[in-house]
Amino acid sequence: MKKKLKLGLFGFGCVGQGLYHVLHETHGVKAEIKKICVKDHHKQRPIDVSFFTYDAAEILEDSEIDVVVELIDDAKAAFEIIKKAVENGKHVVTANKKMLAEHLEEIYELQKKYDRSILYEGAVCGSIPILRNLEEYYDNDMITSIEGIFNGSTNYILTKVFEERKTYIEALKAAQDLGFAESDPSLDVEGYDPKFKLTIAIAHTFGAFVKPENIINVGIQKISEVDLKYAKENDLTIKLVARAYKIDGSIYGFVAPQFIPADHMLANVRNEYNAVLVEGAFAEKQVFIGKGAGSYPTGSAVLSDISALTFDYRYEYKKYTQGDAFPFSNEAFVDVVISSPEGSLITNRDFDNFKGGYQGKGFQYLHGTISLEKLKEWSQWDDLSVILAPTPNLVGASQIKKGERLSA
Ligand code: HSE
């Protein structure tokens, strides 16, 4: 029988309190919180003050503490904490997506060097157990794509705007009040948060460590009334989709809003729910759906990692160690629909393959194929909204060069 794990917790915000709650409601997990390190001396705390310290060393230097659970906001400070923790012989559980995405390769090396586990299921799509499935279940299946809704706040906002006709500002405020949004909500609405999660997922799906700055992210902040109208008239909805594919010797990945047909698997994934679609050579399409944000759902994923440590679990990064990862590339093309005021600078000649469009009431919609670089560029223009077409037809540049597509 294993001894009870002693936990040192950093941060006691939304997820920290969720973990405290689920840990006390669950009976099977042999773990208890010994200390919680927080920053703010003046904040009222919902549990006994004797749990709290303001000195990180009280946890990091305590030889009785087996596991550091890192749940703070600051990615830089979080990396220092987890480095020190493994150097001091502790295992780590973290849900810090930004920190993980920025340092994933170093985190892999740290685990090998100090022979300790760093687990982070709660960092990718909240309660959905995707990382352990990618590591264990899909070990021998050749995954060709992973895509889905990787951010709860934006899905909540889009649901409220579409279904309840709330304004964008009202819906964002509600997502913040419910504890779904990041402290800096631009990370959610501009697509950075799902990009960080995608970066982590790519390592466990395809064995590639990609720097998040190399992955293109387009957010939902420029979606307009005109886009909502287009969606409603065409029996579509809009979702912020993170996706990565293996095509023709390269890995492609990016985050962008997409028009989703009513019969698509993602169409009915609403509010703060996330979904991950995995496609493998043998298993074919599978979909995971669960709450992607919120105190208890994320707390439950963190608890599951703590529980995994009681049987010495460690990610093996099998796809990486197998050594046949494809390079990451942005040289691909997708189909988009753009909306802009009539007379804007973009015309059908700016598309690599123009597929149609119409003008009316001061607005124009244009539909066609563009490069990912152009998607990035256009997404930064004022008065222009770029949304992936219902069927985005992602193709790698090498296929185009073979004349398989744009010559149509
Ligand atoms: N802000 C994140 C989201 C929290 O809305 O998905 C969970 O990672």
CATH superfamily of the largest domain: Dihydrodipicolinate Reductase, domain 2
Shape, principal axes of CA atoms? globular
Output the strand order for the largest sheet: 3-2-1-4-5-6
Strand content: 25-35%
List all distinct small molecules, including ions and cofactors, that are bound in this structure: L-homoserine
Q: Mind telling me the C-alpha Rg?
A: 22 Å
CATH top level assignment of the largest domain: Alpha Beta
Q: Based on the coordinates given, report the CATH architecture of the largest domain.
A: 2-Layer Sandwich
Task: Flag low-confidence runs.
Answer: none
Q: What's the total helix number?
A: 14
State the distance separating the first and last CA atoms.
66 Å
Summing up helix and strand content along with how strands pair, one would put the structural category as: alpha/beta
Helical percent range?
A: 25-40%
Which key features would you list for this structure?
binds L-homoserine; Dihydrodipicolinate Reductase, domain 2; 14 helices; 6-stranded mixed beta sheet; alpha/beta; 3 domains
If you had to describe this structure to a student in words, what would you say it looks like?
This protein has helices at residues 14-25, 57-60, 75-87, 97-114, 130-137, 152-163, 168-177, 186-189, 192-206, 225-233, 295-309, 318-321, 372-379, 397-401; strands at 5-10, 31-37, 52-53, 67-70, 91-94, 118-119, 143-149, 216-217, 236-247, 250-261, 273-280, 284-291, 332-341, 353-360, 363-371, 385-388, 395-396. With 408 residues, it is an alpha/beta fold. It has three domains: 5-123, Rossmann fold (3-Layer(aba) Sandwich), CATH 3.40.50.720; 130-291, Dihydrodipicolinate Reductase, domain 2 (2-Layer Sandwich); 332-399. Strands 3-2-1-4-5-6 form a six-stranded parallel beta sheet, sandwiched between helices. β14 and β15 form a beta hairpin. The site of L-homoserine has 11 residues, from α6.
